[in-house]
Input
Amino acid sequence: MRKILCLHGYRQSAQVFKDKTGSLRKLLKKHAELVYISAPHLIPATSSPAISSETQDNENVEVKPDEKTEEQRGWYFSTEALTFNSHDVTDFSWGLQESIDVISKAFEELGPFDGILGFSQGAALGSILCHLLENGELTFSFRFAILVSGFRSRLSPHAHFYETKLNVATLHIIGETDRIVEKEMSEELTTYFESPQVMHHAGGHYVPATSKEKESYWTFLEKF
Output
């Protein structure tokens, strides 16, 4: 049984992501245990949701009007107003190190983990962790990364994370109709890895977990 640390998307939390990936847990129940943690940064109440926010739409779980603001979190921000958009090309970045520290603590207290699974902003963070792992800059280790609706961070302070190809084993899951992180962005991320495994699905911005995807998940995990 593999143990996987799950990193949620922007405006989510551990509980929200867990609720949205119930079908995935059922699909992988004989193959992996999924553990969820929340990002350390609360999204300011003045930051209103937009179509470009990293909102996951699978399993028909909608954000309720009375959902507490503290449940909306991010791993890092791309503007001084503490907002984030996957398309932002800026020289500003805040919050990344604090998130790495939280993940390090999770590995220490809840681990060890065989791999990580990141969704959207969590997948972008996952790609950064892969770089840090390969360059010996982490206090923990993992054997693989599953990156769903992932993308290369376009923030200039993160540019050095993508200067060389990485050998970390990865499964990239790409939605053909993703309107938040377009498939071209996710496909670009695969080019920074030496031997990426890629799974396309017909849907949008969510973690797919139907019988169609089962074999791809299992084939990848069985390597570990």
User: Anything to note?
Assistant: The chain has six helices and eight strands. Confidence is low (pLDDT under 50) at residues 50-54, 57-67. Helices lie at 14-20, 22-27, 96-110, 121-134, 183-190, 211-221.
